[in-house]
Design brief:
Length: 381
């Protein structure tokens, strides 16, 4: 049964406190609740969804942060970043993402924080149940990861895809500790669920180092792994085990996999989580670039002008550089492929306009909703 259309609320300032109501619609036979009440959110301006899973009968809360342009551009779709342990990390993730996007290191993205116990009834037990892949002696609530993976695959992700304009391919899954254990479990059980994985301080000791066995078993049947993955470890956490896992994966040399590893200096298990989110986002969202021959780059060099300013584009260290009054040292314009470019450290495209003969006649930059990031110039020399 498909849910009825989502109700669009008026600005919160127009509501009386007594009528900050929850917006209801039905998903299957269970009531799903969407709230914009700031008392119910970790980041004001976001939304939350509460639902009960039909798969494992557990209750979940999802925190959602929508990009700035979401309401202004109804045709645009957005990557989705799923943050496990959303009850404690959603706010930090959202704030880091907003800074990353403002600096141009991440695309506009829908952030989803996943909370395992909407009732907050002993959340640590719900967390252990959902995130651990096997039942371990002394951990009576462990071993629920297979069912939670099914919840993620069959309920949470389809729900987000129905309710929001999500990119159905570009998904990121991030977790720390037990949540990183689960992220690695997904990677080597159902890797196509997400295109990117950020695995921070994973609990690799779990159940006699089961994660290593899982990866080995996966490799015996799969030689391709089309994902971008980064492992991170605090300098004073279990660096040895994380290094061992990274080396084991490298030794298997999966086709299509992009693998990174970072040690967060002067940090332990949880204190470096914000830095891990920062480094993880920059890694998975960094677009690949290519080096073009200088003979091809020369066609783009010259003087350009818009209504206010003059720009010079020249070759420096084998790459194009944009030189202007704010950056006399030059800003790198890197090639994404033979015809498309992007500004280094800025997540927006740099298009060169050409005439019918193929000569460069100008450029156009485009970046998000900030008009100062969009600029059109013509080539005058």
């Amino acid at each position: 049964m498909n849910p009825t259309p989502k109700t669009v609320s008026h600005p919160l300032s127009t509501f009386y406190p007594s009528i900050l109501l929850l917006f209801l619609f039905h998903l299957s036979v269970n009531a799903q609740v969407i709230s914009k009440d700031p008392r119910d959110l970790l980041t004001v301006g976001s939304e939350s969804i509460v639902f009960q899973s039909e798969i494992n009968k557990s209750e979940y809360k999802l925190y959602i942060n929508l990009p700035d342009s979401y309401d202004s551009d109804p045709t645009k779709t957005y990557p989705v970043y799923y943050a496990l342990d959303g009850y404690r990390i959603f706010d930090t993730t959202t704030r880091i993402y907003k800074g990353m996007w403002n600096d141009g290191f991440a695309p506009e993205t829908i952030i989803v924080g996943i909370d395992y116990s909407a009732s907050k009834d002993r959340p640590s037990l719900h967390r252990t149940k959902n995130l651990t892949p096997t039942t371990m002696e002394g951990r009576p609530t462990s071993g629920g990861a297979p069912l939670f993976l099914q919840v993620l695959h069959d309920e949470i992700i389809p729900m987000i895809d129905r309710l929001y304009r999500s990119d159905k391919v570009n998904r990121t899954l991030m977790g720390t500790s037990f949540a990183a254990l689960f992220a690695q479990y997904v990677l080597f059980t159902q890797p196509s669920l997400c295109s990117n994985y950020i695995i921070n301080n994973p609990t690799l000791w779990w159940d006699n180092e089961y994660p290593y066995q899982l990866e080995e078993a996966f490799y015996q049947k799969n030689k391709n792994l089309n994902t971008k993955v980064i492992f991170l470890s605090g300098e004073f956490d279990d660096v040895a085990r994380v290094t061992k896992m990274v080396e084991q994966i490298k030794g298997h040399d999966y086709s299509g996999m992009t693998l990174g590893f970072r040690v967060v200096e002067n940090m332990g298990h949880l204190g470096g989580e914000a830095e891990a989110i920062n480094q993880g986002m920059r890694y998975v969202y960094k677009r690949p670039t290519v080096i073009l021959p200088e003979a091809e780059l020369r066609a783009y060099c010259g003087t350009y002008r818009d209504r206010e300013y003059t720009f010079e584009i020249a070759i420096k260290d084998g790459e194009l550089n944009l030189i202007h009054k704010w950056a006399p040292q030059g800003v790198k314009i890197q090639a994404i492929n033979k015809t498309e470019f992007a500004v280094l450290g800025r997540y927006f495209d740099f298009h060169f306009n050409k005439n019918e003969e193929g000569d460069v006649i100008g450029f156009y930059t485009q970046g998000g909703t900030d008009s100062s990031r969009s600029r059109t110039a013509i080539k005058i020399n």
